[in-house]
Amino acid sequence: MMHWLRMACSLSVLGVAVAATPFVLSSVPARAFFHDTPDIEGGRAIYAARCASCHGANLEGQPDWQSAREDGTYPAPPHDETGHTWHHGDAMLRDYIRRGGQAVLDDMGVDFTSGMPGFGDELTEDDIEAVLAYIRSTWPDRIRAAQAERSQLEAGSP
Ligand code: HEC
């Protein structure tokens, strides 16, 4: 209950910001506001090159992803709305991509053998943000809003 109320609250704040934007943009070049907008097309290319082999070309994950293999690892989950990527806030997702599943789960005290490699040596922070932006861009609005809410809670903001 609380969750949905809070979401409605942050969405109405967003509505006000969007409504006010045209006045601001009329005097300042739009580019100034968007210089650090994540690079969704770049993220799509990174995803295709480094993530699609496991998580699927269409973010559909591997077959039977909810059942453990014999070695205790799990197949890669989907990143679309049928998976659980959007149940996690941005900080956790970035950490998972940067350090890999094993390091993150070990830190959390979770006894689990991860099949998710770390990409911190190959991808910059901007690359990681771009690939996350690409994944988010494929979600319907309500899923994006739910995940944004999760990120805010995770960051400790109201
Ligand atoms: C070798 C296969 C493999 C590759 C390549 C891979 N992953 Fe994963 N990933 C997994 C598996 C398996 C999991 C499930 C959790 C676990 O085992 O730790 C996972 C979990 C995740 C999670 C956390 C859980 C969730 O539901 O989202 C994120 C985020 C993620 N992967 C993103 C990526 C991104 C981004 C890339 C490319 C840069 C990538 N993965 C490449 C196998 C892979």
Keywords:
disordered N terminus, globular, Cytochrome Bc1 Complex, Chain D, domain 2, 7 helices, mainly alpha, about 160 residues, single chain, about 55% helix, binds heme C
Number of helices: 7
Query: Under CATH, the topology is which?
Result: Cytochrome Bc1 Complex, Chain D, domain 2
CATH superfamily: Cytochrome c-like domain
- Indicate the structural class: mainly alpha
Helix content: 55-70%
Straight-line N-to-C gap: 16 Å
Instruction: List the uncertain runs.
Output: 1-32
Largest sheet: none
Ions and ligands: heme C
Domains, number: 1
Class in CATH? Mainly Alpha
CATH architecture: Orthogonal Bundle
| Strands, count | 0
Q: Give the averaged pLDDT, no decimals.
A: 84
Quote the beta fraction: under 5%
Helix-strand string = HHHHHHH
Radius of gyration: 18 Å
Q: What report would you give on this structure?
A:
This protein has helices at residues 2-25, 30-34, 40-55, 90-99, 101-107, 125-137, 141-155. It is mainly alpha-helical and 158 residues long. It has a single domain (39-155), classed as Cytochrome c-like domain (Cytochrome Bc1 Complex, Chain D, domain 2). Helix 4 crosses helix 5. The chain is globular and about 40 Å long. The structure holds heme C. Heme C is lined by residues 50-51, 53-55, 73-74, 76-77, 79, 83-85, 93, 96-97, 101, 114-117, 119, 131.
